[in-house]
Amino acid sequence: MSDPVKVGIVGLGQRGLQHLRALWQIREAKIVALCDPIAGNLEEAKIQHFVDCFSLESIATHQRFEAMLDADLDAIYFAIPPNLHAGEVVAAARAGLAVFAEKPVSLYYDEALEMERVIRNAGVVATVGFQQRHDRWNIAIRDFLQDKRMVMATAVTNGSLESHSVKHSNTVEHGGPQNRVWAASMAWSGTSVVEGGIHPLDLMRFWCGDIAWARSDYIHRDADDIEDGGDNPYAYSVSFGFESGMVYNLLLSRLRRSFYSDSYFDIMWDRGHLKLESEGPVAYYYDGLYPPESTPSVEELRHPLPLDDGRGDATLAVNQAFIDAVARGEESGLLNTFSSSLNSHAAVLVANVSDQLGGRKIDLKVFAESDEYAPFRSKPRRH
Fold it and tell me: Model confidence at 5, in pLDDT bands (50, 70, 90)?
């Protein structure tokens, strides 16, 4: 048996703990270092509430990333809010370490491009945490759609502004919102499209290819309805145009005091629809003699996709895929790399710019190259 992959994790909030729990189950992985600026997040007793049988034995803990870089590592996970990135991914890649970065990797496209450039030049394995690609239902959808002529898709997600699962760190100490839910703040999350909408968008890319343009309209929150820094818009309407010609409509809401969420999903090709139902993905299409003598029944049209046992643990699966890739020293087994994920990242940032420019349709390549959009791509300098 080869030596285990030595791993460090930066950020022990909700997502960092989920990765730690998954890695704790992977025998090819060995946790050797943890880093978080909040000392309480590094306490063994606290982590044990989220990771069964966890022990800090032989694991170094750090509150500063620079100190962590001195550890004997093969890979580093970054699970920190996108606005708090300060060159850590670049430093890890330059040190020859594999990188697992949680999405979104930055609120600024130029910063993401710099990360990608250094990763590519260093030749290290790198990925972004789009774990939904590893959900067995989503893999079945990809396999079913791969030979279809895609036309249009729609995703509707209603959510609560205040809710973002477990709150681990006092964001006020870092200039964040009072209620600790950084995803509610535009300055921290980059809007709900960037922080949350990027997941269903990336799934559409997994199924249907890359995105060519975006156009959006946001319903912005009234000034008198901003509490504890929660200023993300009420609702978002975004259209993404794919290189194949397909159009994807993303509708999101983040309402205050609703504490309710639900979703609707539909994707169509030129001969049918696919819907995500409670028991799994179901395709609706007619495959009998055409034209039929009478209108087909729903039973004739309904085709549940063949599925393996359950959906599986997507977080465990994405971690296993990354650890395996690091052990091999190459990325062929990954469902997405850092480089391939940039199209998803660019698309949600362009959605923000489109809204700021009155709903302009913006080509992603023009956004990446034109001087007109340079102010939207660059990260402001810290004074």
Answer: very high
Transcribe 105-153 into DSSP letters: --SSHHHHHHHHHHHHHHT--EEE--GGGGSHHHHHHHHHHTTS-EEEE
Contact 82, 190 (CB under 8 A): yes
pLDDT surpasses 60 at 383 = no
Model confidence pLDDT, tens digit, residues 95-152: 999 999 999 999 999 999 999 999 999 999 999 999 999 999 999 999 999 999 999 9
- φ, ψ of residue 14 to 5 degrees: the values are -55, -55
3-class SS letters over 216-256: EEEECCCHHHCECCECCCCEEEEEEEECCCCEEEEEEEEEC
In b/e form, how buried is each residue of 22-45, taking b as 16+ CB within 10 angstroms? bbbebeebbbbbbbbbbeebbeee
* Cα gap 211→128, rounded to integer Å: 17
Q: Three-state SS for 180?
A: coil
CB within 8 Å of 211: residues ≥ 6 apart? 201, 205, 240, 241, 242, 243, 248, 343, 344, 346, 347, 364
To 10 degrees, the CA torsion angle through 230, 236, 241, 246? 120
**pLDDT tens per residue, range 177-223:** 777 788 899 999 999 999 999 999 999 999 999 999 999 999 999 99
Average pLDDT over residues 62-84: 94
Element (H, E) at 368: helix 364-369
- The whole-angstrom distance between residue 371's C-alpha and the CA centroid of its chain comes to 28
- CA dist 299 and 216 (Å) reads 38
- Each residue's pLDDT tens digit, 212-258: 999 999 999 999 999 888 999 999 999 999 999 999 999 999 999 99
**Among the listed residues 374, 313, 253, the one whose alpha carbon sits nearest the alpha carbon of residue 23:** 313
- Torsion angles phi and psi, residue 125, rounded to 5: -70, 135
